[in-house]
């Protein structure tokens, strides 16, 4: 059975000697404080030396993968098959012990050095899987990414440089030359912390409808596009397809001769700023 990332709630790396949590990544809200969960698991595994791999609660399961220097804790909604989740936990465990084993053995109390490892975890468990045919666009509501340091920052800057409101996720994957799962992980980080959202690519048969948009935006568009803006806006009543509107406004016999490419550019612009919205995509 395939892994379902929507069931993941919380992942933590806990140092075996001492029980300190060196990295925590919340995925969803928990009814129980995740620090209490980590403390409970630490007590059971480290101090009681009990070889427990799964702890089942009423509304969630705790999957535990134990190594020499660290244990990986995954809080997940009940799943019928642990195997795909546990395989990824083992890969995370192997990676963290390979990269940071010495730091974990000679721990000095500074957990900041482990923040970059968040990207390795999210490559295995992305916050959300993006639709490859959707177009990522920047928002104005992004919040601080707690592990955006070092290589994580570099990788996020790279993917951000390819986001222009026109390319789909699949097209960005092709251009970046990274593995698909790496790009998915980076996109999921930007989505989780509200730096991007996704919109569909407009198709000829899409039906658009006029939306309320700020007067300041309309005034600027009117100044830029003049009569063409009004001609386009009045055609979209929630029943007209894009292709029909474009053909109608390009009809020389009707006294109109707008360039089709220019019309499509204007329509896409109106969708981007929220003045038009797709209501049907057959």
Mean pLDDT: 88
Overall outline: elongated
Domain count, please report it.
3
Radius of gyration: 25 Å
Helix percentage: 40-55%
N-to-C terminal Cα separation, in Å?
A: 31 Å
Give an overview of the whole structure.
By secondary structure, the chain is an alpha+beta fold. It has three domains: 5-123, 2-Layer Sandwich (Beta-Lactamase), CATH 3.30.450; 134-200, Arc Repressor Mutant, subunit A (Orthogonal Bundle), CATH 1.10.10; 207-280. The chain has helices at residues 34-47, 83-105, 118-124, 150-162, 169-176, 180-192, 215-225, 227-235, 242-249, 260-272, and strands at residues 8-15, 21-26, 54-56, 61-66, 70-76, 134-138, 196-200, 207-210, 237-241, 276-280. It has a five-stranded antiparallel beta sheet with strand order 2-1-5-4-3, sandwiched between helices. A three-stranded antiparallel beta sheet has the order 9-8-10. It has a two-stranded antiparallel ribbon with strand order 6-7. The protein is elongated, with a radius of gyration of 25 Å. The two termini are 31 Å apart.
Task: Write a concise synopsis of the structure shown.
The protein has helices at residues 34-47, 83-105, 118-124, 150-162, 169-176, 180-192, 215-225, 227-235, 242-249, 260-272; strands spanning 8-15, 21-26, 54-56, 61-66, 70-76, 134-138, 196-200, 207-210, 237-241, 276-280. It has 282 residues and is of the alpha+beta class.
């Amino acid at each position: 059975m395939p892994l379902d990332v929507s069931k993941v709630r919380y992942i933590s790396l806990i140092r075996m000697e001492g029980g300190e949590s060196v990295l925590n990544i919340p995925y969803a809200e928990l009814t129980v404080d995740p620090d209490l969960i980590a403390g409970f698991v630490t007590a059971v595994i480290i101090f009681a030396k009990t070889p427990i791999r799964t702890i089942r609660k009423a509304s969630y399961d705790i999957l535990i993968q134990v190594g020499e220097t660290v244990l990986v804790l995954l809080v997940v909604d009940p799943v019928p098959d642990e195997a795909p989740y546990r395989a990824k936990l083992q890969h995370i465990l192997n990676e963290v012990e390979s990269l940071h084993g010495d730091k974990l053995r000679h721990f000095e109390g500074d957990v900041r050095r482990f923040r970059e490892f968040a990207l390795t975890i999210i490559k295995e468990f992305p916050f959300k899987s993006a639709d490859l045919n959707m177009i990522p666009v920047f928002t104005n509501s992004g919040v601080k990414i707690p592990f955006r340091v070092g290589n994580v920052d570099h990788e996020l800057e790279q993917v951000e440089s390819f986001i222009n409101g026109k390319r789909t996720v699949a097209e960005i994957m092709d251009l970046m030359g990274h593995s698909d799962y790496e790009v998915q992980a980076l996109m999921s980080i930007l989505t989780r912390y509200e730096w991007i959202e996704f919109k569909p690519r407009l198709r000829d048969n899409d039906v658009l409808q006029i939306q309320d948009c700020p007067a300041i935006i309309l005034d600027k568009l009117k100044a830029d596009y003049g009569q063409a803006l009004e001609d386009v806006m009045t055609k979209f009543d929630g029943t007209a397809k894009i292709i029909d509107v474009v053909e109608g406004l390009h009809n020389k016999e009707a006294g109109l001769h707008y360039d089709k490419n220019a019309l499509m550019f204007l329509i896409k612009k109106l969708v981007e700023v929220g003045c038009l919205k797709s209501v049907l995509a057959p």
